[in-house]
Specification:
Length: 147
């Protein structure tokens, strides 16, 4: 278990570093410079009560067996792109902040990533009770988790 947490932390740190502070891959951006595009996407904010998750990942597990992933940004936003229409189980994983990001990560504006605990059932497609009906186009789906 400790190794998988360490691997997840390293992966999350790399993804945070790759995403950067600018806007090309966060929720709310798509297509051209005006933010409008024809891409199918589900985007929203992940939170527990009134606390946003500052790191982790969201997965949509489709009925056809496809898994689509998104990194949770430091403001709690996520975006899953090109999910096929139909029901999808929603999985959320988080935990301790990645060590590099928790320490400020490097140049630029330091972002404080914090741990927000939530029910373990959301981290497994077999136990999550979150299901979202994906439709063509762009849609907002805020994910609210129980503690």
């Amino acid at each position: 278990m400790h190794r998988s947490v360490a691997r997840f932390a390293a992966l999350a740190a790399a993804l945070v570093a790759a995403a950067g502070c600018g806007g090309g891959s966060g929720a709310g951006t798509s297509g051209g410079p005006d933010g409008k595009g024809s891409e199918d996407a589900v985007a929203g904010v992940v939170r527990v009560g009134d606390k946003h998750l500052t790191h982790g990942k969201v997965e949509f597990h489709t009925a056809g067996g496809k898994v689509l992933r998104s990194v949770i940004q430091s403001d709690g936003t996520y975006r899953v792109r090109n999910a096929p229409a139909g029901p999808a189980k929603v999985v959320v994983e988080s935990g301790d902040p990645p060590p590099m990001a928790a320490a400020g990560g490097g140049g630029g504006k330091a972002v404080k990533l914090v741990r927000v605990d939530f029910a373990a059932k959301y981290a497994d497609p077999a136990t999550t009770d979150l299901v979202y009906e994906v439709k063509p186009g762009r849609h907002q789906y805020d994910i609210v988790l129980a503690p």
